[in-house]
Amino acid sequence: MTMKKGRVVCVAFTVILVAIIGLIAELNFDGSSVKASSKYKYGSITVPAKNGTICGAPNYIAYEKGFFKKNGIKANLVAKPTNIGDLEAGFSSGKYDALNGDFQYLPAIQNGAQILAAGGLHQGCIQVLVPKNSNIHSVKDLKGKTIGTPGQGSTGQYVATIALQHAKIDPKTGVTWKTYDYDLLTKAAEKGEVDAIANVDPYAYQAVKQSHFRVIADNNNSSNSTAMAKMGMKKSGSCCYLYLSQKLVKENPKKAAAIVKSYKEAAKWIDAHPAETTNILLDKKYVAKTKFVNKKNVTTLIKSYHFSLKQGSGKEDLKYYAEQLKKAGFLKKNTNVNKLVKSAYYTK
């Protein structure tokens, strides 16, 4: 090989080598480019979101409509554990970063769950119901009866408990509680295994529309009904909340603020686009479509929830529920409600 040809080969090899080094430098270990990852200023989060509920719409819309991405977050939506203990462990270990949940997490927070409420996301989705031919016509008629719920410590039980307390019925001794899966509660009441049920949508909504159950208490008091308020159903009160990992808030407050912003924008978008939200939930299979869980009915439910991230009033709502749960014995007798809510609430 001549000296001239050798120089040409050497230069060509150097160019190729530089190109390869440049390509490697642009890649992360997983093969994604730094340029692509730079879109996510705050990195990634894991949200236990997938449980098939309509209530979880803010998770899906923040992801599908790009609110997470716009605010510098790469979100991973994973299955939501049914056991609250698994959720607590996930937040304590740093496995989970945010959660769309309801006020049933207050006792867990008091017992050390590493999460903070960051604002109410929507109004009620839980009702206390009786079969159409039942001789029960008010909460007072539940004394001595059996109530079916999705589980001990479920929000369904909490809502029924609040209503019972306002009717001066002891929720521990004045009624009997039975547990069934969400989709079996209506049948249990129709078979006479329970006298009433406290269930979440879409199951509660389906019981009313298809099986003609009657509502005796509805925690969606967006109409500001005085009658429902007398049952303890707070006027325009938040039912579900955005929760954040305490670990994340402490270690990366800017990232926490970006998450809150993403959910706030998603909730606002949902409220303005209920039909399009429904299409996304059903078409993307976040919510399983059935003969009843269809676009018309899901859109109706989404409209009724009045999605909006309420940070100030959400804190007041949480305080109200804490007071009710203390009275019912779900929180410790010596609970300082103001102190609990202050320690359990995220403020930017």
Automatic annotation (TrEMBL):
Domain Solute-binding protein family 3/N-terminal: 54-273
SMART domains according to UniProt: PBPb
Main location as per UniProt: periplasm
Organism: Liquorilactobacillus uvarum DSM 19971
Keyword terms: Signal
Homology family: Belongs to the bacterial solute-binding protein SsuA/TauA family.
Protein name, as recorded: Aliphatic sulfonates-binding protein ssuA
Chain coiled-coil ranges: none
GO cellular component, one term: periplasmic space
Lineage per the UniProt record: Bacteria, Bacillati, Bacillota, Bacilli, Lactobacillales
